Amino acid sequence: MGSPEMFRRARETGAELEERQAERIVVTGMGTVNPLGLNVADFWKNLIDGKSGLSNIELPHTNVKVAGVINEFKPEVSLSGLVSLKNLKKLSRPVQFAVAAAFEALLDAGLLDEQREILDIIDRERCGTSIGTGIGGVVDIIGSSEKLEEEGRVHPSNLLRSELERVASVVSMIFGLKGPLQAPTAACATGNIVAANGFNEIRLGNADVMVVGGSEACLHSVTLSLFESVKALSLETDYRKASRPFDKARSGFVMSEGAGIYVLESLEHAKKRNARIYAELVGYGNTADAFHDTTPSEEGQRRAIRLAMRKVKKLNGQRIYVNAHGTGTKPGDPIEISAIRRELPDRMIDVSSSKSGIGHTVGAAGAIESIVCIKALNEGVLPPTINLNDPIDEAEGINLIPNEAQSADGVEVAVNDSFGFGGINSVLVFKRLGE
Length: 435
Known about the structure:
By secondary structure, the protein is α/β, with parallel strands linked by helices. The chain is built from 15 helices and 14 strands.
């Protein structure tokens, strides 16, 4: 019997040399709804300006006082022309977010006509959907339980609002996307896992276009109490200080709601229709810690980063921007920084955490942070880690972009880390489109 090390060496030599040239896959559209903005333009401006989208909350049965609530979102406005007022009652809040963000992304990609339908020249059977959620309709399930207690019955709309897959299937139905349909759930790594799945559907020849992303809206006494019970959440009472990734005074993450959706497309398909191309998705790494329920493993994270970076080894010495998972938990931040430092040691590394401004959107986090990576490459600006006054010792020598945005001059590659409970690690790598 051969050893695991022998098989690993075989994979990294002959097997990889014989691997066929994969289809190049690019990003052609983006959309978001989150505590810093109801669209990509507003979100990016507020993020770069170092603003916070967090606010104080008051809910029973929990000591959590800060969350990322999207108070400005009005579904009857954002979804006007897409969903009738009658059908809105069938859509949970995360589904509403997903539809709004998908609409912006498809419009941005130039895939919709004046009737808000997919262009006739596009083969809908080769346009797929991979949108996930961490917790999905849990708030509606809780509401249905309360309704049963009070009224003794529930309605069909209660079922439709509760199902997790609706974040993907409703987007598919509204826009007529008849290709591959998926609704993954992978804890806090969901927003990256969906992109890896979409990437593979295109690479395998099953689709030309994949609408990928994540959506979450789980702010409720029950969910906050559950995460509070494992000491994951910040109990800070001042919203301006609650989310503090990589700071010695960090005390946990701040739960938020939101959605991030973007369009992946084969380079050939994008070029044929003269699409604007924001970036190329050049690699991803998915690994399992196989270690602990809630405590991350540096070894697992390092393997995910290493796998994701396989296609960009020629960039030695160039700057790389890392949008960190950066939740602000006591054990998580030092482990992630160590993993980044040890896997990218010969490069100039700039690291920041968007969660300092918008909190942790759980299943949507990776997708929103992919948009941040792509915008950084296109705008030449690196977003700050706000509330960072006393960096952790493990980050000494690493530029954490404290409190103010910085120039992205020379940055050609952006890495997006997402790590979830249960030891789920997913890392994506984007770069400017080259030859």
